[in-house]
Amino acid sequence: MLLGFKDYLAAGDEHPSYLLAEIRDVCEELKESPDYNDNGPGMYNPTRLMVSERGAVYSLRAFFVGHLGEECRSSHIVVLIEKIIDRHEVDLDSAKHEFSLSRRETDVLKLVCSGFANREISEQMFISEYTVKDHIKNIMKKMNVKSRNGIVACLR
């Protein structure tokens, strides 16, 4: 579902009240998920897409965080709001040579640039999540960046 909201991040305007309602709704949806109610926090993370008046698209996702209490429930919920950007083709051969990446690092880089999470990369490449994390750390070190966003930004 796409919802419009004022682009207050760029304009510095006050946030619209229904954005707070969306945050509340996504938190409630997370708390009502079968994983949470039956077996403790699971892998379900509700997502909303919203469009600003200027046409920017944002993703709103909710996650459980914190330690589990006596009732097997997390202590907090975090809501992540991210701006969705247009995909740009990445010249992987150029990146491989410029940053001296191995073949496997280049494979991981391709999936990172496509927006895959570590778990999804590990499933596609038939390697553990820890190995994916190690490859990403090596890529960041070779590219002299500190985040996945830095990797993508460096390749533009």
In words, what does this structure look like?
This protein has 156 residues and is of the alpha+beta class. The chain is globular. Strand 3 (57-68) and strand 4 (74-84) form a beta hairpin. Strands 1-2-3-4 form a four-stranded mixed β-sheet, covered by helices on one side. It folds into two domains: 2-84, no CATH class; 92-154, Arc Repressor Mutant, subunit A (Orthogonal Bundle), CATH 1.10.10.10. 47% of the residues lie in helices and 21% in strands.
Uncertain runs: 1-15
Secondary-structure content class:
alpha+beta
Characterize the largest beta sheet: strand count, sense, and whether it forms a barrel.
4 strands, mixed
What share of the residues does DSSP label as strand, in percent?
A: 15-25%
- What integer is the average pLDDT? 77
Distance between the termini: 30 Å
Gyration radius, in Å: 19 Å
Percentage of helical residues? 40-55%
Spatial sequence of strands, sheet with the most strands: 1-2-3-4
Number of helices: 8
Helix/strand order, N-terminal first: EHHHEEEHHHHH
Number of discrete domains:
2
Tell me, what's the shape? Answer: globular
Number of strands: 4
In terms of topology, how is this protein built?
Layout: E1 2-5, H1 8-11, H2 17-31, H3 34-39, E2 47-52, E3 57-68, E4 74-84, H4 92-98, H5 103-113, H6 118-125, H7 129-143, H8 148-154
Parallel strand pairs: 1-2
Antiparallel strand pairs: 2-3, 3-4
Helix pairs in contact: 4-5, 5-7, 6-7, 7-8
